[in-house]
Design a protein that fits this description.
Elements (H helix, E strand, L loop, with lengths): L26 E5 L9 E10 L18 E10 L4 E4 L5 E2 L10 E16 L5 E4 L16 E3 L2 E5 L6 E9 L12 E7 L1 H7 L4 E7 L14 E4 L32 H16 L8 E6 L12 E2 L3 E2 H17 L8 E6 L1 H12 L7 E4 L22 E3 L4 E3 L1 E4 L5 E4 H11 L8 H9 L21 H11 L1 H16 L3 E6 L7 H13 L7 E5 L14 H4 L3 H4 L1 H11 L12
Parallel strand pairs: 1-10, 13-14, 13-17, 17-18, 18-23, 23-24
Antiparallel strand pairs: 1-4, 2-3, 2-6, 3-5, 6-7, 6-8, 6-9, 8-10, 11-12, 12-14, 15-16, 19-20, 21-22
Amino acid sequence: MTNRAIIGRGVVGMAALLLAGTAGATEFRITMPTAGVDASTDGRLILIITPDATREPRFQVKLGADAPQVLGINVDGLKPGGSATIGKGVLGYPAEDLAQVPAGTYTVQAVLHKYQTYNLATGHSVKLPAARGAGQNWREEPGNLLSEPMKVTFDPASKSVVTIPLTKVIPPVEQPKDSEFVRHFKIRSERLSKFWGTDVFITGHVLVPKDFDKHPEARYPLIINHGHFPADFGGFRTTPPDPNTPCVPAPRFSEPCYNRIEEQEAFDLYKRWTSDSFPRFLIVEIDHSNPYYDDSYAVNSANLGPYGDAIMKEFVPALEARFRGLGQGWARFTYGGSTGGWEALAVQMFYPDEFNGAFAACPDPIDFRQYTNINLYADKNAFWRVGPFGKVPRPAHRNYLGHVDYTVEQEQRLELVLGDKSRSGQQWDIWEAVYSPQGPDGYPQRIFNKRTGEIDPKVAEYWRENFDLVHIMKRDWKTLGPKIRDKVFLYVGDMDNYYLNNAVYLAEDFLKTADPPFLGEIAYGDRAEHCWNGDPNQPNKISRLRYHTMYVDKILKRIEAAAPKGADLTSWRY
């Protein structure tokens, strides 16, 4: 996510505010402003408590041993000047209850993540956070209310109350502007607008070739780079890095100045993109953020609506008409990593004639027998491996040595704190929102209980028949195989942090024996973490910045092999 300058960034107003005349607090009373807000507000009220006073608490929320304390409640019809209380009995993470938080001096902050009501075409009314320009990031979503960070002395044994006033409203995000190489394209989707009962738009950030405007006769292949919400086209810059830019470290890669590496790679992309030898393509990154997540997963869904058809039957044809795409399946490709890796494989399978290759790196689970490390069809519980005399927690995240950072239960609890009814905007909830049938209340049916881990086998069966990609390949290979057997390229590290390699192994088991034979590629990175994407010569920290160029040679070979007689193979090779 690109950082943006918004009000309230930084630790400001750090004065201690202790009420009720005591030196502690057991409850937090969060108050609405009396003016400048809607007549009534629905949403999720999130409270963060942290010993770290160096930056705003909202930007510290994460999983792991050094995570801050987070608690959350729903508010409905909260009026100007009104208040809501978070105290004992409210579910939290890492501690489940405020009573378990040690006494001490902390910095606290509250955020109200606003919901709006959608009257769906299914007849249900649901309250969800609208996508307002920040990629469903509750910390930065325009219109959300927040408090100044403040210091409190907390004592779980006292009977005091701390009042936290919500005083700021996050302003709108500035929209990106067109440039010589990056253009922006937006359409209203008829299909999605009908489903959601309100106008829904899809936006594309399009990287156009060198001299695009000077060659009106040229028509171009289209590459869709699927993945998480893009604020703009990422990883491309026309100027060299500034050596005086302050360093921003990347602990994951043990790099003290990773931002400078990113800037250099972005400039290198520009130089290669504009070189005489580079083929001229269109590459688009799509903003299809929605009320459940920063990305729709590019498929038709009972809960998100027909995003697959909206993208492929509305957005792509309009984009190709506007930017002179060739408009044929042999000249379309897709790639991505993680979420984008799953999407790349899914759209190649669900729209097999519309793409000529899918390069899927570190894809989200493509076989639900290894839903990370859970077998949704055989296991009864997602949180625990259960034996006759005990149980063992399932890990959710590891490093390349296998050291575990947090468990599945902990990850689910944080999501539940941030939002119930699949409304957290986090990873497991969007899988649920995309893959599950719609429940009687209009929200996604749970694949498993967020508090106990108990798996619902009926929901799992729905997932299997509709979104288990390996199962669908097996089921439909007689007709699907001839169309995609040479179009699928899978790459994953064998120590993927989220165990995503497990499902790829199962895909490989099937594809090795498939009839007609599989002619694509599957490769693993030795001890490579998330998100290894097929380059055996570069570490993740570099290869992840080269998606836009690393599959070009294979794409050109696919075009040469699949283009029909008389196809335009020259106008875009100037």
